[in-house]
Amino acid sequence: MRVVLPYHLRNLAKVSGELTVEASTTRQVLDALESAHPQLRGTMRDPATGGRRAYVRFYACQEDWSHEDLDAELPEPVLAGKEPFLVIGAMSGG
Fold first, then answer.
1. d(CA 8, CA 57)
2. I need a surface site. Which of 24, 70, 87, 93 has the fewest CB within 10 A?
3. How much is the pLDDT for 90?
4. pTM
5. What is the mean pLDDT of the chain?
6. Where are the alpha helices (DSSP H) in 1-94?
């Protein structure tokens, strides 16, 4: 499947463009990314709890998957590579 990271995480991982991973759930996507690029460990999920970091969002098929179970299977268009899995850095403030 295709994964799109925000610029700062692509820069940290020293990659450009989309990444490709073998995964069917958000947890598997994160495991694959952290395994291939250890410098990403702790950037998208808290190492102590394994939960998503507060200002990181996940999108699949233009839907917010940030609050879905990390072990829920991703939508078929994402699994088939027709749509990317997006990791987005969120902001807060006024």
1. 14
2. 93
3. 85
4. 0.92
5. 95
6. 7-13, 26-36, 76-79
* Domain contains 15: yes
* Longest Cα–Cα distance in the chain: 39
Is 38 domain-assigned?
A: yes
Beta-carbon neighbour count of residue 79 at 10 Å?
16
Model confidence band, residue 94 (pLDDT cutoffs 50, 70, 90): low
Q: Are 85 and 60 in contact (CB under 8 A)?
A: yes
Percent over 70 (pLDDT), the chain: 99
Domain assignment present for 94 = no
Amino acid at 36: A
- CATH classification at residue 70: 3.10.20.30
Domain range for residue 22? Answer: 2-89
